[in-house]
Amino acid sequence: MKKNNLATFVITTLVFVLTASCSTPDAWVKVEGNRFIDPQGKEIIFRGLCFSDPVKLVQDGQWNERYFAEAADWGANIVRFAVHPAHLNAMGWEETFAAMDQGIEWAKKYGLYVIMDWHSIGNLKDELYTSPMYNTTKEETFKFWRTVAQRYKDEPTVALYELFNEPTVTAPNTGTCTWDEWKALQEQIIDTVRTYNPHAVSLCAGFNWAYDLTPVANAPIARPNVAYVSHPYPMKRDQPWEEQWERDFGYVADTYPVICTEIGYCLEDEPGAHIPVMSTDVYGEHITKYFEQKGISFTIWCFDVDWAPMLISDWNFTPTTEGRFFKPYLQSKKQ
Question: Is 37 helix (H, G, I), strand (E, B) or coil?
Answer without folding.
Answer: strand
